[in-house]
């Protein structure tokens, strides 16, 4: 996976997180799962500069 691919996925997840939070206004299991996915992608990005 290229750095560009990871950045694109991060941006998509951030949008999902923001949209979900705007709708729910609370922390849900789905929101936690999206956050975990985002963390994993950020770690990938940091491991492969």
Summarize the structure.
The protein is 84% helix and 0% strand. It is mainly alpha-helical.
The quaternary organization reads as: single chain
| Weakly predicted, low-confidence segments | none
Q: What shape does the CA trace take?
A: elongated
Sheet of most strands? none
Number of domains: 1
- SSE string, helices as H and strands as E: HH
Distance between the amino and carboxyl termini: 12 Å
Alpha-beta classification: mainly alpha
Helix fraction? over 70%
> Helical element count?
2
- Report the strand count: 0
Estimate the mean pLDDT confidence.
83
Radius of gyration: 12 Å
Strand content: under 5%
InterPro entries: HLH_DNA-bd_sf, Spo0E-like, Spo0E-like_sf
GO molecular function: protein dimerization activity
Protein name: Sporulation protein Spo0E
Question: What does this protein look like?
Answer:
The protein has 49 residues and is mainly alpha-helical. It has one domain (3-47). 84% of the residues lie in helices and 0% in strands. It has helices at 3-24, 29-47. The two termini are 12 Å apart. The relative contact order is 0.19. One of its GO terms (molecular function) is protein dimerization activity. It comes from Brevibacillus reuszeri. This is Sporulation protein Spo0E. InterPro entries: HLH_DNA-bd_sf, Spo0E-like, Spo0E-like_sf.
Features:
single chain, 49 residues, mainly alpha, 2 helices, elongated
List the helices and strands and how they pair.
Elements: H1 3-24, H2 29-47
Helix pairs in contact: 1-2
């Amino acid at each position: 996976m290229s750095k560009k691919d990871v950045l694109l996925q991060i941006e998509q997840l951030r949008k999902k997180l923001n949209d979900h939070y705007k709708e729910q206004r609370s922390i849900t299991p789905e929101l936690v799962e999206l956050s975990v996915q985002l963390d994993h992608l950020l770690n990938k990005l940091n491991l492969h500069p």
